[in-house]
Amino acid sequence: MKHLVLTGACALDTILTVPAYPPEDAKQRASSLQVRRGGNCPNTLEVLHHLFSPSDQANIKTHLISTLPAQNSPAITKIHSSFGPGSTKIDFSPCIHREGHTESVSSYIIRSLETGSRTVVNYNDLPEMTPDEFERILDTLLMSNSKEEEDSWWFHFEGRIPSTTLQCIHYIRTHLPPNTTTISVECEKPNREGLTSLAAEADVVFYSSSWAESRGYHNPEACLRGEAPSTRASLMLCTWGASGAGMLTRRKLGGGSGAKELQEEDEYVHHSPATPKDGKPIKVVDTIGAGDTFIAGVLYASLSSSSLHMVDASSPSSQKAKLAFAVELATKKVQDEGFAHLAAQQQQP
Question: What would the pLDDT profile of 259-289 be if each residue is shown by its tens digit?
Fold first, then answer.
């Protein structure tokens, strides 16, 4: 059995679509209003369950760790139902319910039709998860799930509070064998202190363009090559909006003797969104969750038994196919509202 554990915030998003972003102290009528569940990890989970085949559902168990309001609050019903049919396949038991709180994390998003920009204001009254709570959750997960030799665990962290996440990573490293454990993290928010420390400890790192630009990088390759010396990751990815994304893979080379470290070889590949057959530009409808969709594409290509990369997961061609699949999936996502339309995505990486 493969276990995928995602840790991050779960929000209810209120999305106001406006003709243009309003100036300060102005009054403007929105052209539409939507309320839907958000949060990086929940979005990624929803996309994954749109992609998973019946075989995947039977062999990959997904778990969500998120801080939520009281179990009997109306927000919980909204959150669970928002995953659609896939909700029955997600293990919500690791979530932390804050008794006495009735509201989830809230995000208010102003989406401009003029520029496509998204301005997000968050509100969170829920106490954040502590390292001690994560340790108890992990202990329970390990006790309640079979510990067969072929079991593997992939832990993905949004990276909301780096100091807490770093302690969670250290606990995982001391309680699970490295050959069956993968840890991935997101470096998304610019200027968030501590993200580089998370990247240093992860096996897979996802960098956003906004984070990269805040560090002075002007393209994905510069970011990945610039950050490579400071992380142990064997797989690094950086999204760059309409320009696609880059991937840096690192593999050990032979050579050296005795206690000398094996040398590493870095290979960079880039994939840009495919041009539609009619040659017309891609029409962007909804970019909310595009990065989460990209991450879902990489996780799917890494875990799904129906993915072609499983023949030789370390081959350069399979890594390129993994990146191409994730970019094209995110490209498809931005052309329609939400994630439901991704259920029709049947091509394999």
Answer: 445 456 789 999 998 777 667 788 888 999 9
* Extended beta strands in the chain, E state: 2-7, 11-18, 32-38, 60-65, 67-69, 90-91, 96-98, 105-112, 118-123, 152-157, 181-187, 204-207, 235-239, 245-252, 264-271
Name the strand (E) or helix (H) holding 329.
Answer: helix 316-333
* Rounded-to-integer distance, Cα 315 and Cα 335, Å: 31
* Mean model confidence pLDDT for the chain: 89
- Rounded CA separation 293/50 (Å): 11
Whole-angstrom distance, CA of residue 324 vs CA of residue 322: 6
- The pTM (predicted TM-score) of the whole model is 0.91
Half-sphere exposure of 135 (CA within 13 A, CB side): 11
Q: Which residues contact 93 (CB under 8 A, 6 or more apart)?
A: 63
Task: Note whether 48 and 329 are within 8 A (CB).
Answer: no
Contact 293, 342 (CB under 8 A): yes
**Poorest-pLDDT segment among 5-14, 56-65, 247-256:** 247-256
Element (H, E) at 189: none
Cα angle 170, 184, 227 (rounded to 5 degrees) comes to: 95
Residue corresponding to tokens 């400890």: 201
Q: Give the 3-state secondary structure of residue 248.
A: strand
Distance (Å, whole) CA 309 – CA 9: 30
Q: Which of 46, 51, 7, 6 is nearest to 300 (CA)?
A: 51
Question: What per-residue string of b and e applies to 311-341 under the rule 16 or more CB within 10 Å gives b?
Answer: eeeeeeebbbbbbbbbbbbbbbbbeeebbee
- Which residue, among 194, 254, 203, has the nearest Cα to 232 in the 3D structure? 203
Are 79 and 64 in contact by the 8 Å Cβ rule? The answer is no
Beta bridge partners of 14: 35, 108
- What's the gap between Cα 60 and its chain centre? 17
Secondary structure class of 258 (helix, strand, coil):
coil
**Alpha carbons 212 and 47: distance in angstroms, whole number:** 25
Question: Which H or E element spans position 133?
Answer: helix 131-144
